[in-house]
Design goal:
The protein has 160 residues and is mainly beta. It is 4% helix and 39% strand. It has a seven-stranded antiparallel β-sheet with strand order 4-3-2-9-8-7-6, covered by helices on one side. A three-stranded antiparallel β-sheet has the order 10-11-12, with no helix packed on it. Strand 8 and strand 9 form a beta hairpin. It is globular.
């Protein structure tokens, strides 16, 4: 079992904003707030260091300290509360969305047919995700502010 599987099995996720894959490939990820503007993926990050506070909030902010709404305990993963899920076609698993320990946190995840986590993306300033629409290969995740983020599930970053 890998580190991401271990966290998921206990209902938790990495603290740091990022796209974390079970195959070990992880990248920085960021949006500019609950409006979900300027979604971007950045360079590689290490899942084992992803629980550290004060590591910045995404691409282009590596030295910026965490904000007041973010946890400040180094190495401590945060809860992953699922609020919504949607099946993928052809028995390919499902996608889920939800929030963390703060209302400003949101996460998205793709699960395999067996329920194992394929990838998880934590976004500390996105707000909680409450709706998902799947129109293969796109999955559109909508937060509690009514703003949406569409991901191509066939792309290398978000594929199964």
């Amino acid at each position: 079992m890998n580190r991401l599987d271990e966290l998921w099995a206990t209902g938790r996720m990495p603290l740091r904003d990022g796209l974390f894959r079970a195959d070990g490939r992880s990248r920085e990820a960021a949006v500019e707030g609950a409006g979900l503007e300027h979604f971007r993926l950045g360079g590689p990050i290490d899942l084992d260091g992803a629980g550290e506070a004060g590591t910045g909030d995404g691409p282009g902010e590596p030295d910026e300290p965490d904000g007041p709404d973010e946890p400040d305990e180094p190495g401590e993963p945060v809860p992953a509360d699922i609020h919504v899920e949607a099946e993928l076609p052809g028995g390919a698993g499902r996608v889920v969305g939800g929030g963390g320990s703060h209302g400003s946190e949101g996460f998205l995840a793709r699960l395999g047919a067996d329920g194992s986590v394929v990838w998880l993306m934590h976004l500390g300033r996105s707000n909680e995700f409450v709706r998902i629409a799947v129109d293969w290969p796109l999955a559109t995740f909508t937060n509690n502010c009514g703003r949406s983020l569409a991901l191509d599930l066939a792309s290398p970053d978000f594929s199964g």
